[in-house]
Amino acid sequence: MWQKSLKTYLAKHPEIESKLIKDSSCKYYTTETPDTFDKTAEIFIGNPIKSNKIEL
Question: Are 14 and 8 in contact (CB under 8 A)?
Fold first, then answer.
């Protein structure tokens, strides 16, 4: 997958790798039902997520 390509690229370019933020996290917000959003987002992101519902 793309993770292996990225790992190889960063190994060849330590100047870029050193600028990356490590141990970060993402928060996801949705206006729809979080369970529905989470299932769909997992398809695109490739990992399970837990979103929070907001109202605009």
Answer: no
Q: Please, which residues have CB within 8 angstroms of residue 45's CB and are 6 or more apart in sequence?
A: none
Widest CA span in the chain: 44
What phi, psi does 54 have (nearest 5°)? -130, 160
Q: How many angstroms separate the CA atoms of 18 and 21, rounded?
A: 8
Structure tokens at 47: 């990992």
The pLDDT tens digits for 1-56 are: 778 899 899 999 999 999 988 888 889 999 999 999 999 999 999 999 999 999 99
Q: Which contiguous run of DSSP H or E holds residue 7?
A: helix 2-12
Domain ranges of the chain: 23-56
